[in-house]
Design brief:
Residues 16-375 form the AMP-dependent synthetase/ligase domain. The chain is an alpha/beta fold. Helix content is 30%, strand content 24%.
């Protein structure tokens, strides 16, 4: 049973502190040759917090954190939380235009990044007013793992329900990126909520969690915090490269992994994957996008793990639904609402009428994980949070047993000749073809139909398939009006840093071609 009164007294730093008291000698993090126990991690965090405090960082200051997956990210993250600062998540792949937008929108007074990012930083004029800290100075001296002779830290002063811990920018897959304000209470509650779903499968202090998704993404950031909650060992890889991930799996035998469907697809299709490589996993969690049924089945067969499909969004910290551990498995379902979460399906037009099981509508949720709001965007906040309910923008259907199925996004829905087509449904069918590795479908303007469905498909290595053959495959499984009118084969798809396919980028690309 989750006690929110207890959790409301716990900041993110105090969550770390709690684990250190209980499991001081447990290995907290492995980053290549570097390893820290929980006690050593806290010492590094407090030391860097002291450095930041002496330089003037105070409660409420916003700190841009633009680091890849590394031990420096973890130490910096918790050092800022120790002082009551606000982490502004910044993708290390961002270029000057994107950095300028973040600096203009969030206006961080501090910025932590690698020295190799300096060429970008000096080109953005707004950085003139920002205190930039590089992880290593010009003499290659580590700035995060500085050791101070005397710890000089203020008392912990966090109002967990009010104080923002993280500003997490949305992926921008459906429009301009917005800063989601997540409080300490949001994050601490959500990791306990999602953790409760697989509590019976994991043992505190004994697990090894693979950290391959980018920490600057909400899904991975909360996974890191959940690792601390579980007193587990966090095995970091800077960037997802299937070959290196398989090597890490063989070396450390992780018991849990969180990744996107594209990551699991890459592992399952890797030519060097051995039959027992994935057997070390107790739990595999898939997030950021629906996992195709065929991929889920293959993952279950090769790992023997409990596969948790789920649903979430940055505006709800990350998680709102999970596949029940000991419940019925329904292929294609994101499961049921997690602990302390209410969910409803409402009509798309007004968002006021709750729909019965079996009818498609917009998914709305309520719970302690719902964001405080969008940073500096009160009007946008009011549009998505109404009477405490978060309007997700996702189209879903609920069955009689309270299992939810995501069928698409409101903005993704294609209307061809007056008929509604949800790309996710069509992609599910395309993924079932044995030659298909990845696929993305989307609507493009059509003078006759209004819109027509376009598909971009990636084939498995060595596979051969024509557009006509794939269309015929689809015709045997879904209504003819849902079959893509155009099928294009490519070598790769545009994706976010966690592997979520950027449908919007493909739409924009097609739109630009149509204009020229």
């Amino acid at each position: 049973m989750i006690n929110t009164d207890v959790l409301s007294k716990l900041s993110l730093y105090e969550l770390l502190q709690q684990t250190v008291q209980e499991f001081p000698e447990t290995i907290a993090v492995i980053d290549g040759p570097m390893q820290l126990t929980y006690e050593e991690l806290k010492e590094a965090v407090d030391s860097f917090a002291s450095v930041l405090f002496k330089q003037g960082l105070k409660k409420g200051d916003r700190v841009g954190l633009m680091l890849p997956n590394c031990i420096h990210y973890i130490v910096s993250y918790y050092a800022v939380q120790r002082l009551g600062g606000v982490i502004v998540q910044v993708n290390p792949q961002y270029q000057t235009f994107e950095l300028a937008y973040i600096l203009d929108d969030a206006a961080p007074a501090w910025f932590i990044c690698e020295r190799k990012q300096r060429d970008k930083v000096v080109l953005v004029q707004a950085f003139n007013d920002v205190h930039v800290i590089y992880t290593k100075d010009e003499n290659d001296k580590d700035q995060v793992f500085q050791r101070t002779e005397k710890m000089e830290l203020p008392p912990i002063d966090i109002e967990t329900k009010e104080d923002v811990a993280v500003i997490q920018y949305t992926g921008g897959t459906t429009g301009q990126s917005k800063g989601v304000m997540l409080t300490h209470f949001n994050i601490v509650c959500n990791i306990h909520q999602s953790g409760a779903a697989f509590a019976d499968a994991l043992i505190k202090g004994e697990e090894r969690i693979l950290g391959v998704a980018p920490l600057t993404h909400a899904m991975s950031m909360t996974n890191m915090s959940n690792t601390v909650r579980l007193a587990s060992t966090f095995i970091i890889l800077e960037k997802f490269i299937a070959t290196k991930v398989i090597q890490l799996i063989r070396k450390y035998k992780p018991t849990m992994m969180l990744g996107s469907p594209t990551m699991y697809i890459a592992l399952l299709n890797h030519p060097d994957l051995q039959h027992d490589d994935l057997s070390c996993f107790k739990v595999c969690i898939s997030g950021s996008a629906p996992i195709p049924a065929q991929v889920l089945k293959s993952l279950e067969e090769k790992s023997g793990a409990n596969i948790f499909e789920g649903f979430g969004l940055s505006e709800a910290t990350t998680s709102t639904h999970r596949t029940p551990l000991n419940g019925k498995r329904k292929i294609g379902s994101v499961g049921s609402p997690i602990a302390l979460t209410e969910a409803k399906i409402v009509d798309e037009l007004t968002g006021m009428t709750e729909l019965p099981p079996g009818e498609k509508g917009e998914l709305i949720i309520k719970g302690p994980q719902v964001m405080k709001g969008y940073w500096n965007k009160p009007n946008e906040t009011d549009l998505v949070i109404r009477d405490g309910w978060l309007y997700t923008g996702d189209i879903a259907v609920r069955d009689e047993e309270d299992y939810y199925f995501i069928v698409g996004r409101k903005k993704d829905m294609v209307i061809a000749g007056g008929l509604n087509i949800y790309p996710a449904e069509v992609e599910e069918v395309i993924y079932q073809h044995p030659s298909v590795a990845e696929a993305c479908t989307f609507g493009v303007p059509d003078p006759y139909l209004g819109e027509k469905l376009y598909a971009v498909v990636i084939l498995k290595e060595g596979a051969s398939l024509s557009a006509e053959e794939l269309a015929k495959w689809c015709e045997d499984k879904i209504a003819r009006y849902k079959v893509p009118r155009v099928i294009e084969f490519r070598d790769a798809l545009p994706k976010t840093i966690v592997g979520k396919i950027l449908r919007r980028k493909l739409v924009d690309e097609f739109t630009e071609k149509a204009k020229s």
